[in-house]
Amino acid sequence: CCWSQSITTGRYCIKFFLSKIPISSSLPKGAEHAATATLPAAFSDLLPHFQVEPEDEYIVKNKPVTLTCRSTPATQIYFKCNGEWVHQDDHLIERTVDPATALPIMQVTIDITRQQVEKIFGLDQYWCQCVAWSTTGTQKSQKAYIRIAYLRKNFEEEPQGKEVALDQEVLLRCHPPEGVPQPEVEWQRNEDILNPESDPNFFVTADHNLIIRKARMADTGNYTCVAKNIVARRKSTSAAVLVYVNGGWSTWTTWSSCSAVCGRGWQKRSRSCTNPTPLNGGSSCEGQNIQKSVCVATCPVDGGWSEWSKWSACGADCSMWRTRECTQPSPGTGGKDCQGLDLQSLNCTSEQCPQMRSSGYGSRLTLLLSVAAVSGAEDVALYVGVVAVALCLTLLLIVVVLVYRRKKEGLDADVADSSILTTGFQPMGIKPKNSHLLTIQPDLTTTTTSYQGTLRSRHDTTGKFSMTNGTLLDPLPNGSHTLHNGKLNPDPPEFVSRLSTQSYFKTLPRDVANASYGTFNFLGGRLTIPNTGISLLIPPEAIPRGKIYEIYLTVQRKEDLRLPLAGCQTLLGPVVSCGPPGVVLSRPVILSMDHCSDGCLDNWALRLKKQNYEGVWEDVLLMGEELVSEPYYCQLEAETCRLFSEQLGTFALVGESLHMGAAKRLRLVLFSDAYCSTLEYNIRVYCMDDTQEVFKEVMQMERQLGGRLIDEPHILLFKDSYHNLRLSIHDMPQAHWRSKLLAGYQEIPFYHIWNGSQRYLHCTFTLERLSLSTCELTCQLCVWQVEGEGQSFSLDFNIFMLMDSSASALAGPSAFQIPYLIRQKICSSLDAPCPNGADWRMLAQRLKLERHMSFFASKASPTSVILDLWEAQHFHSGNINQLAAVMADIGKQEAMIFLVSDGEC
Questions:
Q1: Which of 57, 434, 527, 646 could form a disulfide with 631 if both were Cys (CB 3.0 to 4.6 A apart)?
Q2: Is the peptide bond before 331 cis (omega within 30 degrees of 0)?
Q3: In angstroms, how far apart are the furthest CA atoms of the chain?
């Protein structure tokens, strides 16, 4: 067989012959059966020459790398990795001809996977090289080393915060985490990258430390060391650098005037610590900022009148006068002059005045007219004042009438009867003993009050609330749900179908088994999804007065949502929806849900995510960095997260592990078939998040499958170490049972568990009985991560079911342990600051809630928020006597505050 091809570069024809030639025994397995192309005679004496040799590569995550080798002229090229030939089926071969030299070119590529490299990890470095053959001989390429790229999470040394004086040198140390390839390091200040080339005040040493040559005020900020390579980017904890300035005195002011007007006094001068002003905690100026000096002021002398002189003789005008002088003493040194007249005159009445005698009647008439004129002027002023007062009183009366009418209309439009405060109140099975505190026992046998309502607000002033033994509100069309004594009369199918036609309930699921709903007014209430650990507390006054809302609470299926998780993030709890989202709240509600983190905030960066109206998930809160001004606030307990929220919506708690010490709490649950009529027997193992809602869903699914629970659930701490979870069964009685599992263990991938994307994580162990009469099994299940020491659990066939008979919706006073009026009196007593600290702050300390002091202080009534949290924490297990003891310990024992009679209730 001959195949020829003309080469245009010469006047001859080069022929390639395909024939069998001897193959060296050193060739890879299978290569001896392959046909080898012989070189033309013109090139038969040439050794292979490599145009492309394999280069060092890094495997990033699980992506394989490709090695390429190209040689001319060559009849065969094969790769050898770690001294062993790579099988020919794993080679991809391309043959071409160099148009310049007419030499045949052969190119071979292979793929190297992470699994191949991990097989010899720790023994030697993984390397590959290619070997090319020609008719003359062989040539070997350079070795290419393949390494698995990684970057650890923990920095070997992180920068530490410092306080430095102005112009002082600052050294921030950073030793990046171990990584392959060697990570690069950059520095950030307040999330902005520092460039030492543009700012010579910064200098980065060869060992990645940052030096600030002269600290400036602008250099104050949070500094972060960032390490990165082709795998990941890691940030150290931020180091706060505070540049402070020590204060300096200004110059003295001039002396002030003497403080005394008369005699000995003081005068002073001052200086200020503003040259410069201390900043960022710098030391203040030492010494006094005020100096005083004694001064003596000359006393002023006020003038005084002398005695009146004697009356003069009666003059021709029938008048006489007398005088006095301001000479006893005379005013001096700024004293006051004498006040008053220094001359007085008087008409003569003696017989010596002829005018008086001849016109006595006229004089008396003139005197009377003068007096009348003066009296008339005084009466006019009096009348004007009386009229002004009358006008003011008239205007005030009009204002009072208008205010009274408006208040009367407002009272008609709202609930005015105080008996609603205790309508439906139930003591909830709590019987206080030996307690003088919180001892209301209302009579619930005389009246059964119910209320109904929809989402719309009650602003219609024509309809009045009925306070008789009938319904509180008029019934709504289509049959609204009624709460009797605070409990919901359930009609789930009709409720869901009615709400599904309304736009704001478009996200309410049809699965009423995992939903709760109820109707609430300003008295508040509680929604609970049984067996899930999920509840919504609606405190009193959270719903504005005059409005009634239909509120729902549901848990979403994780597989129906696209929750964005990146890097080391994982879902730590259920995805909970409460709504409708658009309702207006006067104060935050408390949403309680389980979480499965290890409870150590140092191991996690916990974020609260909320789904907006477009369906996009947004970060609304970072745990530990909450702002009291924001509408969300979280309290993380050992197994429960309490979310204070001023808005309703869909929420999820997501955690990002900060280092490999972080762990999720997993609940290991075992199920088997309740009835088995064959020799095969299945044991199903679930490894789920340690939250009640997931456990409830698995229980429901197993109930449909006819399964039963084996032994109690066990808690397993699953670490963020990238290692899978392995499970195996041991110590089975070999005389009666055998395992049909081919491998020695089953393995669940790490990311399958960590990201929480699937709800049902399980594996099945299929066992076989040797006889149908065998009905007992005792064995051991071992569970461990690849790097860990493992945990062993014994299996027993004990069935138990978790049932919760509590009502899913409670409205009004029956939803709370603390009666409404007593709660109001506690708030009025503790909200006001007390000099000895016997106020809401001491209550928070006694209840071990002092970590949230700033959050409580930001509210109009801190005591009310503390009591809301107590209600959310102790709904099922709270002891009202213990709360009474705490109040007594604070010192608030006044009977008028805490003891309320039945009449008041």
A1: 646
A2: no
A3: 179
Q: How far apart are CA 85 and CA 90, in angstroms?
A: 11
As beta bridge partners, residue 344 has 322
Q: Which two tokens stand for residue 621?
A: 């809160």
| Domain annotation for the chain: domains and CATH numbers | 49-148 (2.60.40.10), 150-244 (2.60.40.10), 248-297 (2.20.100.10), 516-657 (2.60.220.30), 667-798 (2.60.40), 816-890 (1.10.533.10)
21 neighbors 33 (Cβ within 8 angstroms): no
* DSSP category for residue 257: P
What is the per-residue pLDDT for 62?
86
Question: Mean pLDDT over all residues of the chain?
Answer: 75
Give the containing element (helix H, strand E) for 712: strand 707-719
Degrees, nearest 5: CA angle 625-617-858 = 30
**Rounded to whole angstroms, how far apart are CA atoms 255 and 253?**
7
Rounded to whole angstroms, how far apart are CA atoms 438 and 428? 14
pLDDT digits (tens, 9 = 90+) for 218-241: 999 999 999 999 889 999 999 999
Please compute, for residue 68, the number of CA atoms within 13 A of its CA located in the half-sphere on the CB side. 6
Q: Residue 793: its pLDDT value, please? A: 56
Local structure of 39: helix, strand or coil: coil
Please say whether the beta carbons of 412 and 464 come within 8 A. Answer: yes
Rounded distance between C-alpha atoms, residue 157 and residue 207, angstroms: 11
Strand partners, 112: 65
In this predicted structure, the answer to whether residue 869 has a pLDDT above a threshold of 80 is yes
For helices 862-873 and 820-830, give the axis angle rounded to 10 degrees.
Answer: 130
Task: Of 394, 389, 315, give the one whose Cα is nearest residue 354.
Answer: 315
What six digits make up the tokens of 513? 């088994």
Total residue count of the chain as it appears in this document: 905
Sole residue written with tokens 């929480």: 756
Closest-CA residue to 671 (of 695, 650, 690) = 695
- Res. 507: pLDDT tops 60: no
Euclidean distance between CA atoms 811 and 518, whole angstroms: 8
What is the pTM assigned to this prediction? Answer: 0.42
Closest C-alpha to 694, from 606, 802, 567, 773: 802
What are the tokens at 449? Answer: 């009050």
β-sheet bridge partners, residue 228:
184, 233
Please give the structure tokens belonging to residue 675. Answer: 């009835």
Specify the 3-state DSSP secondary structure of 374: helix
- Is the CB of residue 665 less than 8 Å from the CB of residue 715? yes
Pairing of strands 650-657, 575-579: antiparallel
Run of H or E residues at 368:
helix 360-413
Nearest CA-CA partner of 622 in 631, 637, 609: 609
Q: How far apart are CA 889 and CA 837, in angstroms?
A: 12
Rounded to 10 degrees, the C-alpha dihedral 152/153/157/159 comes to: 140
- Chain position carrying tokens 């990311």: 751
User: What pLDDT, on a 0 to 100 scale, did the predictor assign at position 121?
Assistant: 61
- Which one, of 423, 514, 415, lies nearest residue 759 by Cα? 514
pLDDT digits (tens, 9 = 90+) for 434-474: 334 443 333 333 333 333 333 333 333 333 333 333 333 33
Question: Which residues, in sequence order, are CB contacts of 683 under 8 Å at separation 6+?
Answer: 670, 671, 672, 710, 729, 764, 765, 767, 795
Strands 525-529, 515-520: pairing is unpaired
Least confident of 336-350, 493-507, 798-812, 855-869: 493-507
3-class secondary structure per residue, 726-778: EEEEECCCCCCEEECCCCCCEEECHHHHHCCCCCCCEEEEEEEECCCCCCCCC
DSSP code for 437: S
Say how far apart CA 880 and CA 436 lie, in whole Å. 11
Taking alpha carbons only, the member of 644, 469, 473 closest to residue 546 is 473
Q: Which residues pair with 192 in a beta bridge?
A: 189
Tell me the residue type at 170.
Answer: V
**Residue 46 burial (CB count, 10 A):** 16
